[in-house]
Amino acid sequence: MDNSSFQLxxxxxxxxxxxxxxxxxxTEDRINSKVPYARLVDEMENYVSVxxxxxxxxxLSVTQTNSFGDYILGHSLNVCMLSILIGDFLELEYPAxxxxxxxxxxxxxxxxxxxxEIIFKTETLTExxxxxxxxxxxxxxxxxxxxxxxxxxxxxxxxxxxxxxxxGKGYPKGIKDIPQFGLIISIADMYEAYVxxxxxxxxxxxxxxxEFIRETEGxxxxxxxxxxxxxxxxxxxxxxxxxxxxxxxxxxxxxxxxPNIVIPGKDIPITGEKVIDIISPPLPKSVKLEKNNSKx
Length: 296
Known about the structure:
Elements: H1 3-22, H2 31-34, H3 37-52, H4 55-64, H5 71-89, H6 94-105, H7 116-119, H8 127-133, H9 136-147, H10 153-161, H11 180-195, H12 206-215, H13 221-230, E1 239-241, E2 247-250, E3 261-262, E4 275-277, H14 285-288
Parallel strand pairs: 1-4
Antiparallel strand pairs: 1-2, 2-3
Helix pairs in contact: 1-3, 3-5, 3-6, 4-5, 5-6, 5-11, 6-10, 9-10, 10-11, 11-12
C-alpha cells in the first residue's frame, strides 16, 4: 500500500471513530468533550486533502465497502467522500469543500432518532414508517443547532435539503429551489445507497448506479454530468467483467463511464485481483422504480 492510500485509510478511520460517537445517543451529553467542533473541522480538513489526493481510488473504495455491519456509518463516510469529489469538480474553494464535507458526513445524523427496525426493515415501509424516515433531515438540523451551534447555515441547509428534489417531489418541505450543498449531497447519497449492499437489496454495478442517478427525476443533471465526466470509475490496472463473462483489464485512468480495456491472454493471471462487474442487462422498470420506496 502506497503512502497516499494509507493516509486515506487512516483519515477514514479517524472520522469513523468520530461519527461512532456522534451517532450514539448515549454519548450526547459528552459529545462536546469528546468531539468538539474544532476537532471535527480539523479531521474534515485532512479528509478533504487526502480524498483529493486519491481521486482515482474514491469510486473503487465505495464499491468495495461492505455496508452491512456499519450501514449508516459506512454510508456517511462514502457520501462524504463522493460529495467532496463532486464539489471539487464544481470548483468549490477549499473552505467550502470542508463545510460540504461536514454537511455530507452528517447528512443522516437525524437517523439517530430512527428506530433500527425501520432502517433495517426488508419489507415495504408503511406510511407511518415512511413519515418517520422523512423526519430525519429536520432532526439532523436540530442536532446541529443543539450540539454544534457554530456550524454554518450552508452546513445545516445541506443536511436539511439532501432529500429535496428540483421537481418539488422531495422531502421534508417539497421545495424546488435547493441550495448547492443539498444538490450535491443528494446525488452522492443516491449513488452510494444504490450501488452498495443493503439488507433490502444486493450490491449493484457501477454502471447501474450511473444509470440510476441519470434517470432519477429531480436531481441536478448538470451536476450529474460533471460528476460522471470527471470521475475515474475504473482505475487503471483493475479488472472488469463484461456482459459476455469475459474478464478485461483497464488501461489508463480514463474518466467517464467507458473504460479503456484490453482482454488479457490466458497466460495473464488475475487470481486475487478485484474484478468489477461493469456491464449488466438493462434494468427492468420494477428495479428503476425502487427509488420511490428508498430508505436512504
